[in-house]
Amino acid sequence: MAVKMSADELVETLRDTIVAMVRRDGPDLSARQLGVFLTTYLAEGPHTVRGLAAGLNVSKPAITRALDRLGELDLTRRKTDPQDRRSVLVQRTPKGSALLRELSSIMGEAARDAQGPVATGEVANTDSRPRQAVAG
After folding, report:
1. I need a labelling partner for 121 at 20 to 30 A (CA). Which of 16, 66, 108, 115 fits?
2. How does residue 117 score in pLDDT terms, banded at 50, 70 and 90?
3. How far does Cα 18 stand from its chain's mean position?
4. Which helix (H) or strand (E) holds 105?
5. Please, are residues 50 and 61 in contact by the beta-carbon 8 Å criterion?
């Protein structure tokens, strides 16, 4: 059963996910690179530079730069389309699939954290005063 999240919870989930991705070993992706990566892995393909540029509403050179970086990291690869040699296909890689699984896991944990103890069946604190740390 899907649990609806508020906009604040979604933003918190996004922040927690990005922070976790930055803290882990491995390279960081820019927002544009992440957008191209996720579109390549989550949207129905085949994907081309032209199609990604149109779908994300950015220039082809911007997509090319993002794909250059994703290719350096072995998260995607480009291959000439055998049916139209002027067109370049963007392909997924095993390393990219592993990153997507890791990202999904991190985001799932961040979403559970954003929903708080009520979503996990714990008793909620109804005291609206901010909590203070106890010196120990």
Report:
1. 16
2. low
3. 8
4. helix 94-119
5. no
